[in-house]
C-alpha cells in the first residue's frame, strides 16, 4: 500500500514500551501492526531511538521490527524552538521538557496526530489546547493527540 497522502502519526517512546505492559499491550500492538500494514505513515524520532537504548531487549527488538515502516525525524532547531515555547508557556515544566520535545517533533515534523500513553504531560485534555495554541502562534497547524486506543481500527 502506498503511504502517499496518508495521515502522519508520531509515536512517542511509551507506545513501544506499552506493547509489553498488561494495561496497554493490546492497543499498542494493534497500533504498531496497523503501521506496519501501511494504514498510516508512522513517524518517530531520534529522541525515541535514544530513549529506547536503555529499554529491555524485547522493547528494542519490537522497535527494530517496526523501523522499516517508520520515518525517523531528527531534532531540528524548529522543534527545539517549539519545545522552549511550550515550556515558557508552562504547559510542562523544564523538568518534563523531553515530553514537550515529542510534541514539538511531531508538530514540526508535519504530523497530524501524536499517539502516547503519557496522560500526565501529553494526552491530557487541559494541555492539548495549550500545545495547539502555541503551535498556531508559531505557524504550525494544530495536532491531534490521542492514545492508541483512539486511533486503532475496530471491527463492527
What does the model show?
It is a single chain. This protein is of the alpha/beta class and 156 residues long. It has a single domain, classed as 3-Layer(aba) Sandwich (Rossmann fold). It is built from seven helices and five strands. The protein has helices spanning 13-18, 25-36, 46-52, 57-66, 77-88, 97-108, 128-137, and strands at 8-11, 41-45, 70-73, 113-115, 144-146. The chain has a five-stranded parallel sheet with strand order 3-2-1-4-5. β4 (113-115), α7 and β5 form a beta-alpha-beta unit. α5 (77-88) packs across α6 (97-108). The longest helix is centred in the first third of the chain and has 12 residues, at 25-36. It is globular. The relative contact order is 0.18.
List the helices and strands and how they pair.
Blueprint: E1 8-11, H1 13-18, H2 25-36, E2 41-45, H3 46-52, H4 57-66, E3 70-73, H5 77-88, H6 97-108, E4 113-115, H7 128-137, E5 144-146
Parallel strand pairs: 1-2, 1-4, 2-3, 4-5
Helix pairs in contact: 5-6
Q: What is the strand content?
A: 5-15%
Average pLDDT level: 95
Alpha-carbon distance between the two ends: 23 Å
Shape: globular
Radius of gyration: 15 Å
Tally of individual helices: 7
Mind telling me the CATH superfamily name? 5'-nuclease
**How many domains comprise the coordinates?**
1
Provide the CATH architecture.
Answer: 3-Layer(aba) Sandwich
Decide which structural class fits the backbone.
alpha/beta
Biggest sheet details: 5 strands, parallel
Helix content: 40-55%
Please list the strands of the largest sheet in the order they lie side by side. Answer: 3-2-1-4-5
Contiguous uncertain segments of 5+ residues: none
Q: Provide the CATH top-level class.
A: Alpha Beta
User: Tally of extended strands?
Assistant: 5
What is the H-and-E element order? EHHEHHEHHEHE
The CATH topology, please? Rossmann fold
